[in-house]
Amino acid sequence: MSLLSTLASELDQMAQAGTLKRELALKTPQGPIVEVEGKGEVIMLTSNNYLGLADHPAIIEAAAKGEHDFGYGLASVRFICGTQTIHRQLEGKISEFFGTEETILYGSCWNANEGLFQTIALEQDAIISDELNHASIIDGIRLAKARKERYKNRDMNDLRRALDATKDARNRVVMTDGVFSMEGSLAPLPEMVSIAREHGAFLVVDDSHGTGVLGKRGRGTPEELGVFGKIDAYTSTLGKALGGSHGGFTTGPKVLVDYLRQKSRPYLFSNTLPPAVVMGSLAALALLEKDSSLVTRLRENTTYFRKQLTSKGVNVREGIHPIVPILIGDTAKAIAMSIELLDRGVYVSGFGFPVVPQGQARLRCQISAAHTREHLDRAIAAIADVAQKFGVLAA
User: Fold this and answer.
1) Is this prediction's pTM over 0.90?
2) Mean pLDDT of the chain
């Protein structure tokens, strides 16, 4: 069988099982209401646009000014001729935001994770990773020559076991998501800080879904859990709450960042972030620092949405994060429900294996500060009705 025949056969199997992913085209900017090609206007409930900044006028203006003043792109990597003053300015602002010494920019948080582990963890080292960490972490760790250990999701006894199993390693890196993207659950960072220090391990948190979202000032999962300033290093993104465009970073000790600038392959061999993204990201951080009411509004919307769905018998995973998983079980059913909801004016995604464990398919709703109470009420009513139709509403 040829390669293309093999691929076609697997695609046919996915289609028959009802698990093919769809890419729908938006005809409008990202926002609480979007126009989907062929579907009309729908409530957006599947975007990482947590603070509603993707179409904020101040960010759009800053991005346009960035292109006008600094050009469309740099046509270079950072260390040749791809560094402008605004790149250093953004790195400094991110360091200030996270309370760290230094920051290095990447094209995405995927690149940041890809560029971290293979650079700092060699054969004599060990990386210890939560089993539900994001795919970018998993793939980044695969590139490293270090020993690898996984521990059960948020299980601190199993983390201790993994640390004991690697006690002969030169250096040990413990890696966790701050927020697990399919669960909406938070890593137990206070315990992790204590355990990492007890074992002399270096703790890294990918806080892509926490940055701008959690904590009183939007400083993320560590601020939410009372350990801000106690995490050794972070990776995170500019592409979710902070404007929703592109770009990622690693932030932490200066010596770590200096080393990554010299050795990290995605940084050394990828074009620098374009000026529009840099200036837009600076504007997003300025908005958040000036006014944390967006974070408050996001929390209020999330609490309301979770409470109302639960009261209607919808099986919502507990939590405080605006990622709100509705547990369905069967992958084909979850995807069918998402299609039905789109027809009813609610854009929400269904996920199944291998994105989530077998038998734990779900709808993943994501709330934004830009949602009004009317938006949420319409979505809640539609979800409850579709859940009843598909027989997944609690009796």
Assistant:
1) yes
2) 96
**Active-site position among 209, 321, 333, 375:** 209
Tell me, which fold does domain 16-45+292-389 have in CATH? Aspartate Aminotransferase, domain 1 (3.90.1150)
Alpha carbon distance 358, 354 (integer Å): 7
Q: Catalytic pick from 56, 87, 134, 240?
A: 240
Active-site choice (181, 245, 349, 368): 181
The first and second tokens of residue 295, run together, are 């974070």
Residues 6+ apart with CB under 8 A from 172: 125, 126, 127, 128, 163, 166, 199, 200, 201, 202
DSSP string for 17-40: HT-----PPBSS-SSSEEEETTTE
Give 348-367 pLDDT, tens digit per residue.
Answer: 999 887 778 888 899 999 99
Q: Domain ranges for the chain, please list them.
A: 16-45+292-389, 57-290
Active site annotation includes 240:
yes
Q: What is the mean pLDDT of residues 115-144?
A: 97
Structure tokens, 391: 């027989």
Residues 6+ apart with CB under 8 A from 15: none
Q: Is 149 helix (H, G, I), strand (E, B) or coil?
A: strand
First to last CA, the chain: 49
The verdict on whether 209 is a catalytic residue reads yes
Q: Is pLDDT of 93 > 80?
A: yes
Given a cut of 90, whether residue 303 has pLDDT beyond it is yes
* CA dist., res. 253 & res. 268, Å (int): 19
Q: Annotated catalytic, 181?
A: yes
Give the β-pairing of 202-206 and 33-36: unpaired
| Domain 57-290: assigned CATH number | 3.40.640.10
Query: Is the Cβ–Cβ distance between 269 and 244 less than 8 Å?
Result: no
CA distance 38 to 30: 17
